[in-house]
Design the sequence.
């Protein structure tokens, strides 16, 4: 079953807080918007990962972590990915 | 007949017509709609046949017919009410697709007006006219065509573009003309290297490859014996290649959903053998290692006598792999053509390659870009005057999905099996064609399009009719 947007944002905030070593309260939600991604890896494939070349609908989540800047997560169904975090993509 | 008699007859005829109209309206006011198919069945089950009941059952549609798909949650009684208040009737329900209903107009409106009327309703996903036979069909000396009777065929613009959805009439792969020559062959095996295939889907099950009883199971030196009844699963090398994502089932349906069986869609090949291969996971991702393992399996089966001539690969990444390159090359040596998705990043692949489509120096690799229903390069599609060879329809493509359903999807993922399907159709006319001959046939038979000039090396969209020699 696909997770709802609130659950996905919660997962994204927790992940980002852990990566940055900050409290979740320091991370604010900038936007959550519907988006179409270029492939089944949501345009955020990891190293060595092949993905289906089908346009995939999902949501783009932008989070702000104070002075550390803005970060983008991409989600579809139960899939959640961190896009270009310090130059790399991550599957959460 | 003298003038006075003529006027008398005319007056009488007009009176009768008006009377019939008034009686008809009275019937509607009294909530006595003409029976629907469902109502007719109930009637025939409950009552002894009567002459008027039989006459109603055999009634053929007189008014405009349209397909309407109601949004999920719209109940049958709501559908009945909607059609009733518009003086229309439910002629049929397409059970395989939730909410898809055939409606007949009964008050003389033209088909476009009926479509427009329904399209405005909030509970309607889409409404479209039932496609009609082209004027030149069957005319002596005119081009030969063969239609499919599949329920959703009217939505398959890539096979017959009638202008549905605002498309350009005729901007398709020419399937109808191709089918006048061949509808495929079960002697041709196409490997769909993807997330597996739902081989139990009603529209696919008769076209799924099954290992012949006299052929030994796949034996891998390291993995041991694998019972490859329906192909191979490289993700765990244990379970069968049942699809748990949907992507592979979609690609398989484009190539070879059973055609002319009255249900769902028609594949480019009405008859073919689809070999399911699974290396993409339930989320649609996979590794180079598993892709290589699956291609290795295909080569093994080819050597064992399976006539697999095509691999359709609707996936990729920017990462280059020499090992993947080598195993695809080896497949070419075995007589297997490899179709690969150009990718969906709107990039020039000559500058930013996408693999495996980017291994275009290999003579058995064909990189496929996507075009829309107006013959335009899809906005998302990668392109490349040198590194992408051909284009095929890849926007809003209906095909098979999990749990017996159907789904409309876009991507070079969809364009790739369109091209692979045409190649299989060509092979059904001459199974001895070499990889080189088949590739040249496909390239020489494209429809050159202005939008593809400088975007793909052939400058054109694949054309099935010309490729099989039907025009």
Sequence:
């Amino acid at each position: 079953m696909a997770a709802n947007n609130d659950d996905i944002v919660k997962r994204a905030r927790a992940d980002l807080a852990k990566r940055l070593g900050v409290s979740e309260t320091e991370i604010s939600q900038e936007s959550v918007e519907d988006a179409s991604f270029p492939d089944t890896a949501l345009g955020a494939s990891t190293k060595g990962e092949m993905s289906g070349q089908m346009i995939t609908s999902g949501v783009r989540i932008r989070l702000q972590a104070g002075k550390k800047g803005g970060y983008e997560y991409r989600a579809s169904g139960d899939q959640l990915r961190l896009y270009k975090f310090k130059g790399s993509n991550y599957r959460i | 007949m003298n003038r006075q008699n003529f006027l008398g007859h005319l007056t009488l005829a007009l009176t009768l017509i008006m009377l019939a109209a008034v009686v008809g309206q009275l019937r509607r006011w009294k909530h006595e709609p003409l029976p629907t198919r469902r109502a007719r069945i109930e009637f025939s089950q409950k009552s002894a046949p009567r002459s008027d009941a039989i006459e109603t059952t055999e009634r053929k549609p007189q008014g405009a017919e349209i397909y309407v798909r109601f949004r999920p949650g719209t109940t049958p009684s709501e559908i009945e009410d909607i059609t009733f208040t518009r003086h229309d009737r439910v002629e049929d329900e397409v059970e395989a697709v939730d909410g898809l209903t055939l409606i007949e107009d009964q008050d003389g409106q033209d088909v476009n007006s009926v479509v427009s009327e329904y399209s405005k309703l909030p509970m309607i996903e889409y409404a479209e006219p039932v496609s009609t036979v082209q004027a030149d069909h069957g005319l002596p000396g005119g081009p030969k065509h063969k239609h499919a009777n599949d329920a959703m065929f009217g939505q398959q613009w890539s096979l017959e573009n009638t202008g549905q959805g605002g498309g350009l009439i005729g901007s398709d792969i020419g399937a109808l003309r191709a089918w006048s020559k061949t509808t495929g062959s079960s002697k041709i095996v196409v490997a769909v290297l993807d997330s597996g295939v739902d081989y139990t889907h009603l529209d696919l099950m008769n076209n799924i490859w099954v290992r012949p009883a006299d052929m030994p199971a796949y034996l891998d030196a390291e993995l041991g014996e694998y019972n490859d009844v329906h192909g191979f699963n490289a993700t765990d090398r244990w379970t069968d290649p049942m699809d748990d994502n949907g992507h592979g089932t979609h690609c398989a349906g484009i190539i070879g959903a059973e055609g002319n069986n009255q249900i769902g869609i028609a594949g480019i090949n009405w008859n073919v053998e689809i070999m399911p291969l699974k290396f993409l996971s339930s989320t649609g991702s996979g590794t180079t290692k598993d892709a290589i393992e699956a291609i290795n399996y295909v080569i093994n089966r080819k050597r064992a006598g399976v006539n697999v001539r095509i691999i359709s690969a609707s996936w990729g990444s920017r990462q280059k792999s020499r090992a993947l390159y080598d195993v695809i090359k080896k497949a070419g040596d075995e007589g297997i053509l490899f179709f690969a998705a150009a990718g969906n990043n709107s990039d020039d692949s000559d500058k930013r390659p996408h693999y495996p489509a980017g291994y275009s120096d290999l003579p058995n690799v064909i990189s496929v870009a996507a075009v829309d229903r107006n013959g335009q390069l899809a906005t998302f599609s990668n392109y490349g005057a040198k590194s992408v060879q051909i284009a095929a329809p890849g926007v809003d493509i209906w095909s098979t999905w999990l749990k017996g359903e159907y789904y409309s999807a876009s991507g070079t993922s969809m364009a790739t099996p369109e091209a692979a399907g045409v190649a299989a159709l060509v092979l059904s006319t001459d199974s001895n064609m070499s990889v080189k001959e088949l590739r040249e046939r496909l390239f020489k038979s494209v429809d050159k399009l202005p939008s593809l000039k400088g975007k793909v090396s052939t400058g054109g969209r694949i054309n099935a009719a010309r490729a099989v020699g039907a025009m």
Summary: Residues 22-60, 132-138 of chain B have pLDDT under 50 and may be disordered.
